[in-house]
Amino acid sequence: MRPLYVVKVGSATLDRVVIHAELAQLVARGARVLLVAGGAVGIERHYRSIGRPMPELRLPNGDAVRYCPPEEMAHLVDAYERVTLPAVEEGLREHGLTVFTAVAARGGLVTGRANRPLKAVSAAGKATVVRDHRAGVPEEVDTVRLNALLDTYDVVCLSAPVRDRDGGALLNVDADVLAAALSNALDADHLRLVTGTAGLLTDPSVPGSTLRHAHPGEAGRYAGGRMRQKVRAAELALAGAADVAITGPHTMADPAGWTRFWRTPAPEPELTLLGRAVGVPSVSGDEHELARYLLGWCAEHGIDAEIDEVGNLVATRGTGERRLLLLGHLDTVPYRWPVEWRDGELHGRGSVDAKGSLVNFLAVLASAEIPAGGQLRVVGAVEEEISSSKGAFHARDRYPADAVVIGEPSGSQKLTLGYFGLFKLRVTASVTSGHSAGLDAVSAPDALVRTLEDIRGAVEKEASDALSAVIDIRCEPGRESQRAIGILNFRIPPLADLAVLRAAALAQAGPGVEIEVLRATPGYAGGRSTSLVKVFTRAFGQAGIRPTYVVKKGTSDMNTLATTWRDVPMVAYGPGDSALDHTDEERIGADDYRTAHSVLTDAVARWFALEERSGS
Questions:
Q1: In-domain check, residue 127
Q2: Do residues 177 and 322 share a domain?
Q3: Could you say which of 384, 408, 557, 592 is catalytic?
Q4: Calpha distance 32→13 (Å, rounded)
Q5: Does 384 qualify as catalytic in the annotation?
Q6: Are residues 412 and 434 in the same domain?
Q7: DSSP annotation of 172
């Protein structure tokens, strides 16, 4: 699932080449990009070119707004279609991008509702009511057509105006508010409102006085002029699940110039990072924004950190030879919803699996006492939730350690000693096309289902504890033949022989049936006698906890490390109820998180102390 960025950029920023390069970088990372173009500069240029004065209205608060009576709307459209949008298209095509541009009213891509008559002040200083001002707010978005466009083009660029829902006439709308409406309607992952300042300034006379973080209702007192609309748009966008930021000056690349907007404050300061990490969407393949946010948090806390070649967050304290690795992951499964603290629980995708664990790791890293001969490293890996496990394989080959704690949830009072392995197959059945009513006719789906059952039987004969599930089926009809393709997933116990299972599965291939091994990761289970388990046991005891020790039937990055690491003690530990993994009820309790933090802090200190005594 490709992430969606909605990026609103004003005319002054579009005149600078840097923003086009930044948009190209988003596309290069695999994102879909919906650009919302502001038009102030382009409109001024167009009006000058046609020798037409640009009418304005003076508001009672002293602000001036563009006056848009019906006779001006065609000129506004011309300004976008002849000046702003062609310039956008040219700038992006110079980066090799395919671009679709249109005013949002075209074909009813966006429709809106007209505002009430506007109170204004006449040239003579008298209050007046303007009834023909064609301004409004966006209300409905043609998500089907826009998603089709986003899947076809590298960048889709829209601008005002929109179509009036009550008759199809044109309505001018604020571009920032339009971006917020599009973000919510399209369930965007990220919304960026790019401005000419370093985000929202608490003191406009001080360029570096950026308000770094804001919750609803907190930012308005700092906003004046055009910035009021940006703040309004940012808060409107919090109704969706995107992470929202006002960025600048004229760039998205410098986090020091960001004002981030968060939906809900944490009930206690020590829970702030947890809520914010969950508030940054990071579905597999879209981990960059979360990694970059956590990188900034590490810098603020004096932690040496980087984003490595594959996108992992790597944060380290200490340079000694006794190395403890805390390996979590950044990514989540798809589908998100607005993050919310409610009754002491944080509701949101990734709160359990596994941002609670990763944030706990970072908090412990920030506060731990690292001895002179020790090193504590946290890795937030990418792509744990998909078959590639790219981040964990890179960690396996790049970040050696003497012991490992994997960040996965089982609750603060359980310690996971191992995981089942993963054996994943793609099965393709092909048959000659023919009528299903023919004598002895066998369709491709028939052949596929039979083969899947044969494979299940053969594998389970060799590993009776294996768990299997068909996780995907699709059919591909053709003129001469038809194919049915299925993905068969096995969870296999730690002692299962993968070579034997592979041979048993592949033996089920035959005429018209192909079987491909997509993943073969062995299970792993460590004993309870390792030094790592012992320090956790003592930490549990110190906290008054009688722990439960489990081997889980899922698979984690522990399995990936175990493919080549030998005699390295490993456990998994993290807050959260694993029964809520990947569900729409995913949530984590503050008390469970605090307990896990206390236990892990104690266990890490005990491990370094034990290793120091062993080495002396």
A1: no
A2: no
A3: 384
A4: 20
A5: yes
A6: no
A7: B
72 or 598, which is more confident?
Answer: 598
Structure tokens at 192: 């960026």
Give CA–CA dist 352/320, Å, rounded: 32
What pLDDT score was predicted for residue 438?
47
Helix or strand (DSSP H, E) at 190: strand 190-194
Tell which residue, 476, 422, 483, 423, has the closest CA to residue 451. 483
pLDDT at 130 over 90: no
Sign of CA dihedral 274, 275, 281, 283: positive
What does the alpha-carbon distance between residue 612 and residue 415 come to, in Å, rounded to a whole number?
Answer: 24
Domain of residue 496, residue span: 422-520
> For the chain, how many structural domains are there in total?
3
Instruction: Give the 3-state secondary structure of 395-459.
Output: HHHHCCCCEEEECCCCCCCEEEEEECEEEEEEEEEEEECCCCCCCCCCCHHHHHHHHHHHHHHHH
Collapsed DSSP state (helix, strand, coil) of residue 616: coil
Q: Is 331 a catalytic residue?
A: yes
Mean pLDDT of 328-357: 96
Q: Using CA atoms, how far apart are residues 391 and 379, in angstroms rounded to an integer?
A: 9
- Residue 76 sits in a domain whose CATH number is 3.40.1160.10
Catalytic, out of 331, 383, 408, 611? 331
Amino acid at 346: L
Phi-psi domain of 448 (left: phi exceeds 0; alpha: psi -120 through 50; beta: other)? alpha
CA distance 52 to 524: 75
Q: How many CB atoms lie within 10 A of CB 30?
A: 11
Return the higher-pLDDT residue of 16 and 105: 105
474 φ, ψ (degrees, to nearest 5): -145, 155
Distances in Å between the alpha carbon of 180 and those of 158, 173, 190, 463? 13, 12, 10, 53
Higher pLDDT, 555 or 237: 237
Amino acid in the structure at residue 468: S
For 115-128, what is the mean pLDDT? 86
Backbone angles phi and psi of 136, in degrees to 5: -165, -160
Structural contact between residues 436 and 443, judged by C-beta atoms closer than 8 angstroms: yes
Two tokens at 120?
């204004």
**Are 169 and 239 in a shared domain?**
yes
Helix 498-506 / helix 444-462 crossing angle, nearest 10 deg: 150
